[in-house]
Amino acid sequence: MLSSFRILEIMHQGVALLDADLRVVIFNERVGELLQAPKGAIEIGVSATGMAAQIPILGRSQLSGDSQESWLTHLLTRSTLLHQEICVGERIVSLTSTPVDDGGWLISCDDVSALASIRKDMADQNRRFDAALANMPHGLCMFDADKNLLLCNAGYCRLYDLPETLTRPGTPLWKILDYRQTAGNAPVQRDAYFDVVVEAALRGSAASENIVLTDGRVIKITHNPMENGGYVATHEDVTESVRSEEQIKHIAGHDPLTGLPNRTLLREKLEKDLALGSGAQRSALLSLDLDRFRHANDTLGHAVGDLLLKAVTDRLKKCLSEGDSIARLGGDEFVVFQEKAQTKERAAALAQRLVSAIGERFIVEGQSVQIGVSIGIAMAPDDGDTADGMLKNADIALNKAKTDGGGSYCFFEPTMDAGIDKRRKLELDLRQAIAGSQFEIYYQPQVNAGTAEIVGFEALLRWHHPERGLVSPAEFISLAEETGLIVPLGEWVLRQACKDAASWPGHVRVAVNLSPVQFRSPSLAHTIISALADSGLSAVRLELEITESVLLTDSEAALATLHHIKGLGVRIAMDDFGTGYSSLSYLRLFPFDKIKIDQSFIRELGDSKDCAAIVKAVADLGSRLGITTTAEASKRPTSSIR
């Protein structure tokens, strides 16, 4: 059995026992080692005063522990427990002096350097956390399962002008909301605040909602549920961004020249109204194309042409009845939707009013202008029950009206759809073209506006048909998407573009458009990786362009795919920005590297103040978000790079 002295020597802690006269009775070597005592400073019979004389740290006052007295002073004047943490060389030593019954003292010490370091790190981390919390631009709060406040930051208080009494832990949420009701900044719909809390709890993940306040502000509240039933929430004032988004949404859904809804908004209305109709009532879609407008526009100038289009818009509106709607698709193309046509006779009567109104002479800027209008009519549900079907059949009828000489209207007839045979032949030719390598890539330069330096090239596909010559992508891309041929065709473009770009200067990138159909292909990521590996092209030199339509369906899966691709190092650009009114929302969901302003805005930049405002707004938005902004010109490449 080990003796008491042997036990003392193998202890990790340093120990010394002093008698009532404060002289050493028992000690181990460890106590001297920890206190870095010189030889003989701690020996049996040595007094506490003698120890302090040779171990100066014991005679100095300490700022840590329960007292600021020195170890020696405490032992001489008091009879209570003393705990101190003292610095001995590079160590932090915990020194505990415990009074014993006979008037003596038990002295114990231990190396707590590691623990002290951890405590210091935690203290530093807490200070940083407090600083971050205090300086957050957004409000942050934490509530327990009973909706009692646990903590909040200064941003939360400022956001709602809360008094200090309502920011203390334990404050019920209902008291805060009652105060805000009195202060005039409560939620307009109070239940909406709790709805998002419930949604987050049910999902087990963050949930966000924009809450409108009675003072007109819009606050985005994001709730993150905690395991104990409580939640952490951030509050962000998004009033300006929401208003900007609504403005851009309106601009993106309307023609800047006439103020009419554009194709995007038209399709949305058609799909909704056709679905609600469900065959119970007949409606008519009238596709309009102005006769001789191009001649007037070319001879009188674009400025007069714009004024003429506005005058046409005014006349068309005057012909409509309640419930009818009108949209401009671009150029001199308009669409009128007669929701309650019921009969062909009513649709024909509207068409005749439109033809007569537009056929009357216009006086623009003192000049007499004579134009006309051709109209194709499709009736729902007979000629289609979807927006695309109705638009297609109305256009087919419009082509017949123009072929017949213009200035008239024509109803769609199934026999008009002779173009189906042409489409079948084009599909067969397209399949043979893919197998027979009839395609070639042209490259359109991308130039830095500040330095005039070419920073990249956009890959543009061209089809060299053995009989028809050069076939425009406008004729075959949509067909390739419908038939699924866009997947192998797109893969060829991607591989060839990477192969070509690998031989270019190292700072020059290549941009490749991804079709929505191609984007949804499960083999897309593998194709990208394989194309980069086979060509030896660095991923950072490849830029993939997508349109908003990629994100319109199953946006969560699309965003996951985008993050996967971006994780490879590939750049992602949003093409045709501004043509869809959800574009701004997608910029918040995914960190795009580039946005390309749609060329429709660029074409009218010099003639339309609205277009100029849109372009500037988008450029400023891109700058603030750190996203490169490209003004997309007409895609007319001048050469092929090999």
From TrEMBL:
SMART domains: EAL (SM00052), GGDEF (SM00267)
UniProt cross-references to PANTHER family, sorted A to Z: BIOFILM ARCHITECTURE MAINTENANCE PROTEIN MBAA, DIGUANYLATE CYCLASE DGCP
Domain EAL: 423-642
Keyword ATP-binding included in the entry's annotation: no
Start and end residues of each GGDEF domain: 281-414
Keywords: Plasmid
Name of this protein: GGDEF/EAL domain-containing protein
Pfam family, one: EAL
InterPro entries according to UniProt: Biofilm_reg_signaling, EAL_dom, EAL_sf, GGDEF_dom, Nucleotide_cyclase, PAS-like_dom_sf, Rev_trsase/Diguanyl_cyclase
